[in-house]
C-alpha cells in the first residue's frame, strides 16, 4: 500500500496576511487567558495561606521589599546554635511527641539546614520554618519567639504529629502538607503539582532514609515522580496551545480509486500503481 502526502498549494503565500491576523488573534486570546489565570491565582492565594501556616508562598511584594516584608521579625543578634548542639534537642522533642527523630531531622535539614535564624521570603521562621499563623494554632502568638530553637522545634514537631495523625502515618502526604498546606493536599486529592512541593517532598524522604528511617516511602517517591511528569506534560500542552496553529495540522483524506478497489489485497504494487489514499492540506480560501 502506498501513501502520498500532497504538498501545500502554490498560492499559499497569498494568505500570509490572513495567517498573521489569525495568529495575532490566537495570541491575544492566550494573553487574556493568562491574565484570567493570574487573577484566579491571586484570588485563591489568601485562602491557600489559611489552609496550613507552613505554606511557603513567595509573594512578589515581599520579594520587592514591601511593608509586609519589613514586618517580618528580625533574627536575634547573637550566635546561632550549632548543629551538634541542636541534635539532642530535636531528638528529645521527637521522642516527647512520638514522632520519628529521623523524620524531624529530615524536615529541619530540608527547611533550614539547621539554621535557627532562617527567615523565608514568605515569612516562615526558624529551624522548621514555622509560619506565624501555624504557630498561633499551638499557642505561640509572638513570631519572634520562633527563633528560639526549643519553641520552634516544639511547635513544628507538634504540627508534624497532627499531620501524621490526620493522614494516618502516610509520610508522603504528611510531608506535602507540611510544605504546601493541608488544604492544598485535600483539594487536589494529594495530587499537588507545585514544583517546589514535589522537590521538597523528595528531598525530605531522601534525608529521612539517610538518617535511618524505615517507614515505607517508596510509593511516595513514585508518586512524586509521576506528578513531576504530569507537570512537565501540562507545560508542554500549554506551550503547544499558545504557539502552534492547529490549522497547520489539518489534513483532508481523498481516495484516488473507486471504493470497490479500496482493498489492500486487490491493490497491485509497482511502478505504474497509484496511491490508494492521498493526505493533503485543505485548500485555503482567499
Give the low-pLDDT segments: 1-50, 57-69
Query: Tally of extended strands?
Result: 3
Number of helices: 11
Structural class: mainly alpha
Mean pLDDT: 75
Global outline: elongated
CATH class designation of the domain at 54-242: Mainly Alpha
> Over all CA atoms, what is the radius of gyration?
29 Å
CATH architecture of the domain at 54-242: Orthogonal Bundle
From the 3D structure, determine the CATH topology of the domain at 54-242.
Lysozyme
* Proportion of beta-strand residues: under 5%
Helix content: 40-55%
Task: List strands and helices in order, with pairings.
Elements: E1 3-5, H1 16-51, H2 60-63, H3 67-70, H4 83-97, H5 101-112, H6 132-137, H7 149-166, H8 171-180, H9 182-187, H10 195-210, H11 218-243, E2 252-255, E3 277-280
Parallel strand pairs: 1-3
Antiparallel strand pairs: 2-3
Helix pairs in contact: 4-7, 5-10, 7-8, 8-10, 10-11
Question: What does this entry look like structurally?
Answer:
The chain is mainly alpha-helical and 286 residues long. The protein has a domain at 54-242: Lysozyme (Orthogonal Bundle). The chain has helices at residues 16-51, 60-63, 67-70, 83-97, 101-112, 132-137, 149-166, 171-180, 182-187, 195-210, 218-243; strands at residues 3-5, 252-255, 277-280. It has a three-stranded mixed sheet with strand order 1-3-2, with no helix packed on it. Helix 4 (83-97) packs across helix 7 (149-166).
Quick summary:
The protein has 286 residues and is mainly alpha-helical. It is built from eleven helices and three strands; from the N terminus they run βαααααααααααββ.
Amino acid at each position: 500500500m502506498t501513501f502520498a502526502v500532497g504538498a501545500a498549494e502554490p498560492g499559499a503565500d497569498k494568505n500570509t496576511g490572513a495567517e498573521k491576523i489569525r495568529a495575532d488573534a490566537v495570541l491575544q486570546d492566550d494573553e487574556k487567558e493568562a491574565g484570567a489565570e493570574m487573577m484566579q491565582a491571586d484570588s485563591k492565594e489568601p485562602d491557600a495561606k489559611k489552609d496550613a501556616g507552613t505554606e511557603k508562598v513567595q509573594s512578589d511584594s515581599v520579594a520587592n521589599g514591601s511593608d509586609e516584608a519589613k514586618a517580618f521579625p528580625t533574627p536575634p543578634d547573637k550566635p546561632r546554635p550549632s548543629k551538634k548542639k541542636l541534635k539532642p534537642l530535636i531528638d528529645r522533642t521527637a521522642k516527647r511527641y512520638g514522632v520519628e527523630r529521623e523524620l524531624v531531622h529530615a524536615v529541619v535539614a530540608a527547611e533550614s539546614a539547621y539554621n535557627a535564624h532562617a527567615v523565608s521570603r514568605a515569612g516562615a521562621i526558624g529551624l522548621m520554618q514555622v509560619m506565624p499563623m501555624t504557630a498561633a494554632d499551638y499557642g505561640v502568638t509572638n513570631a519572634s519567639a520562633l527563633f528560639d530553637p526549643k519553641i520552634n522545634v516544639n511547635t513544628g514537631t507538634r504540627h508534624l504529629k497532627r499531620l501524621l495523625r490526620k493522614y494516618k502515618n502516610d509520610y508522603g502526604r504528611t510531608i506535602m502538607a507540611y510544605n504546601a498546606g493541608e488544604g492544598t493536599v485535600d483539594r487536589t486529592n494529594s495530587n499537588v503539582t507545585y514544583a517546589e512541593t514535589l522537590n521538597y517532598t523528595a528531598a525530605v524522604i531522601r534525608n529521612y532514609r539517610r538518617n535511618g528511617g524505615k517507614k515505607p516511602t517508596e510509593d511516595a517517591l513514585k508518586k512524586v515522580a509521576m506528578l513531576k511528569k504530569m507537570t512537565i506534560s501540562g507545560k508542554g500542552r500549554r506551550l503547544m496551545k499558545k504557539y502552534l496553529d492547529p490549522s497547520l495540522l489539518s489534513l483532508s483524506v481523498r481516495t484516488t480509486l473507486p471504493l470497490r478497489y479500496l482493498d489492500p489485497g486487490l491493490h497491485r504494487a509497482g511502478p505504474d500503481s497509484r496511491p490508494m489514499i492521498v493526505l493533503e492540506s485543505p485548500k485555503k480560501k482567499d
